[in-house]
Amino acid sequence: MATSPVPEAAISEVLQVLQKARGYIDGEALRLAASLTGLSPVKVEELCTFYSLVLREPVGTHVLRICDSIACHMAGAQDILAQARQHSGVDLGEVSRSGKLTVIPHVCMGLCDRAPALMVDDQALGPVDTQALTQLLAQLEADIWKPS
Ligand code: FES
């Protein structure tokens, strides 16, 4: 029986590193992840679908994940999501016209006590109101936003 050179549990870390380097997991990155872990490309594709933070399409410079689960929904997440989508000028999941932003609705991120919550790249923020979002979007567009 063949064994994987890297435990299957390592796939999430491998995907994170590849995504950070490439922006998203394209076919080449998927095949590389399979090669590095000893998993089949089909299995890696399956895991990419399972892990909600894995991006399979090109994204903008910043990815804005806005929680739309119940606690955030009750706290006004739909307004935040609508404002961010309107600002980007494109559909959810697409790269904004400026190339700086991709807005993605997301399931609960475990930040319910900070609802409505969102993530900018890997940085959790919340609670975020429409005024704070306006400021955040302006900073992202001007490339002056920095994680705290
Ligand atoms: S419901 Fe939004 S972070 Fe949990």
Automatic annotation (TrEMBL):
PANTHER family: NADH DEHYDROGENASE [UBIQUINONE] FLAVOPROTEIN 2, MITOCHONDRIAL, NADH DEHYDROGENASE UBIQUINONE FLAVOPROTEIN 2, MITOCHONDRIAL. Belongs to the complex I 24 kDa subunit family. Its cofactor is [2Fe-2S] cluster. It comes from the Bacteria. This is NADH-quinone oxidoreductase subunit NuoE. Its EC number is 1.6.5.11. It holds the Pfam family 2Fe-2S_thioredx. Transmembrane segments: none annotated. Keywords: 2Fe-2S, Iron, Iron-sulfur, Metal-binding, Oxidoreductase. One of its GO terms (molecular function) is oxidoreductase activity. The gene is nuoE. It is an enzyme of class 1 (oxidoreductase). InterPro entries: NuoE-like (IPR002023), NuoE_dom (IPR042128), NuoE_N (IPR041921), Thioredoxin-like_sf (IPR036249). The keyword Cell inner membrane does not apply. The keyword Iron-sulfur applies.
